[in-house]
Amino acid sequence: MTKLLAGFDIGGTKCAFCLGTADGKPFDKIKFATEPGFDAVWQAMILTAAKMLERHNLTWQDIAAIGVSCGGPLDSRQGVVMSPPNLPGWDNIPLVKLLEDEFKVPAFLMNDANACALAEWRFGAGDNVENMIFLTMGTGLGGGIIVNNDLYEGRSGMAGEIGHIRLKDSGPVGFGKEGSFEGFCGGSGIARHAEQIAAEYPDQQSVKEYIAMTGSANYSMRNLDLAQACGNEFARHMFDVTGDMLGQGLSILIDAFNPDRIVIGSIFARSEELLRPAMQAALCRETLGQSLNDCQILPAKLGDDIGDYAALLVARYGLEHGAKDKGTDFWRPEIEEIFDDLFVRYPVLKECGNDIRRMYEMLAKCFANGGKLLICGNGGSASDAQHIVGELMKDFAVRRGVKKSVADKFTTMFPDGSGSKLAEQLTEAMSAVSLSGECALETAMANDVGADMVYAQQVYGLCNTGDIVLGLSTSGNSGNVVNAIKTAAVKGGRSLAITGGRDSQLSEICDVTIKLPESETYLIQELTLPVYHTLCLMLEKNLVNGMK
């Protein structure tokens, strides 16, 4: 069956775990409270996910990916939540790694405003327009930006923090900045602004009537809405003031981005009729005419379900973009066929399926970006390392040839015929090096420093940012392999391992570890070969696809 998506919507007071279809439409969810501190929420996440999968008679093998929508600040590229103000105790939490280690499924993290932008763009008021801006306009004011049919995240996923724009030198504080867009148009900022205006409002009788109507001097949007519905002039004035500031902020976005559409949630979705007249007047006053004519401003459509859609679309977006680079689709049907055939031939390997999938994606992306693979192991694993290099560096199951541009260059540089002959005999290669083939260096390191350093020294000299080191160790605890993986991390490389079924040092420190379901060395080695042969077949098919 087609695999499902899972998502966690993490909020300051409540969270939810939801399941959805492969395109990101939710069909079930379970809510749970956001208890103080990370550990309590983490345990609730594990228990809630287990309950949901049991409810639908599913296992994690049925889930393609997990998405997490969470308030910032966070680093979506590294998968780290970095001390959000509404999540005390969540200090530099490596949430993606924790999820992947726990559930053995690819996981992806995104700022909730960006995630909600994807949700409204795909399934809500965005309607898949080419260029769209989404504003949360809830307690605070966040945003997400769609440019040329893709989410613009910026360097670390922090793009779209629109609430931080300063609209005036003074005014209510929002986003830690006086007079900010969030200060004037986020729910908390509007309440503070109303309190300031109430103290100086010319018609104090209207303010007193407001307090009498609502029962307090609480200037929440709910109270302001109730009061204006009863005809209170002060409350109506606050909607005009907020609409004017909203229009001023939107004018900056429209002039800067020239979007097809701006979609605004929460407060605007509930109070559009009250905010739009003053907003529109400010837009006409402040915005370039053509850009304003190009742009529709609409309330969000998804309402209370937006968090469910958002979390699932983080998973979908991660699969689409985490496994794609430079226009290469790493999961074409013929590659899926190779992947699925492995489990037909070796059903025992099905429990490793998600880790094999993740390892393939990392390797495919590495080679697509011009990176190289360094492989190390001892004894039979050293032989396996050399075997893998042989499959990757030359034709394996199909004739690869070389790219036409390369063949033409050979012919041009050596027109005597030798160039074309060379090009005919060469084949496209994926850069792979076995670290067990440097006899002089290895014996020198073993004699002069120690056998546990024979691979680490080579990794130190060869590994660059974006390269991958693959460690083969049936125990997962080979000292020289562990040291090589640690050195790769320092050099900016990624790390993979194929081991036996037990937890090990390698499984703790590698980005992905395939833990084969055996404990005897020879049985682990018997399963290692079909795994790396499948990976090599998939990578070769992907390479040939990229040459077309």
Verbal overview:
This protein has 548 residues and is α/β, with parallel strands linked by helices. It is built from 21 helices and 21 strands. The strands form six sheets. The chain has a five-stranded mixed beta sheet with strand order 3-2-1-4-7. A five-stranded mixed beta sheet has the order 10-9-8-13-14. A hairpin with a 5-residue loop joins β2 and β3. α12 packs antiparallel against α21 (521-547), α15 packs antiparallel against α16 and α18 (454-462) runs parallel beside α19 (479-490).
Structure characteristics:
single chain, 548 residues, alpha/beta, 5-stranded mixed β-sheet, 49% helix, elongated
Overall strand count: 21
- Average pLDDT, all residues: 91
Strand order of the largest sheet: 3-2-1-4-7
Low-confidence stretches: 323-328
Measured as a percent range, the helix fraction is 40-55%
CA-based shape = elongated
Described by strand count, sense and barrel closure, the largest sheet is:
5 strands, mixed
Radius of gyration: 28 Å
Estimate what percentage of residues fall within beta strands. Answer: 15-25%
Brief characterization of the structure:
This protein has 548 residues and is an alpha/beta fold. Helix content is 49%, strand content 16%.
Fold blueprint:
Blueprint (H helix, E strand, L loop, with lengths): L3 E7 L3 E7 L5 E8 L4 H18 L7 E8 L3 E2 L4 E2 L13 H9 L3 E5 H12 L8 E4 L7 E5 L2 E3 L20 E2 L2 E2 L2 H5 L1 H14 L3 H11 L6 H9 L3 H25 L3 E4 L1 H21 L2 H6 L1 E4 L6 H17 L1 E2 L2 E2 L3 H13 L7 H16 L4 E5 L2 H14 L10 H10 L4 H8 L6 E3 L4 H10 L5 H9 L5 E5 L6 H12 L3 E6 L5 H5 L2 E4 L5 H27 L1
Parallel strand pairs: 1-4, 4-7, 8-13, 13-14, 17-18, 17-19, 19-20, 20-21
Antiparallel strand pairs: 1-2, 2-3, 5-6, 8-9, 9-10, 11-12, 15-16
